[in-house]
Design goal:
It is a single chain. With about 80 residues, the chain is mainly alpha-helical. The chain has one domain. Helix content is about 50%, strand content about 0%. The longest helix is centred in the first third of the chain and has 17 residues.
């Protein structure tokens, strides 16, 4: 539990110092993320439904949105 609290504190500090240049998406630790390289695949091909793959897809959408390269509405940004 202490590690989780520390991670949350780090996220808060980074967001406080860097404000608008920090993405909202967080890539959570995930077994499938660590397994994918062992199989020579990116996580999106190894297990597209895993939490880590979904996190990376959300980050990609957020990057596109911040650069005005998509028509995705803000409220449709997160995949669950």
């Amino acid at each position: 539990m202490a590690a989780c609290a520390f991670a949350n504190q780090v996220v808060s500090e980074v967001r406080r110092h860097f404000e608008e240049i920090v993405f909202s998406s967080i890539i959570h630790r995930n077994t499938r993320l660590s397994e994918a390289p062992s199989f020579g695949k990116p996580v999106i091909l190894y297990d597209a439904d895993s939490k880590g793959a979904v996190n990376y897809l959300n980050l990609a959408k957020e990057i596109l949105q911040k650069n005005n390269m998509t028509k995705i509405k803000e409220e449709e940004r997160i995949i669950e």
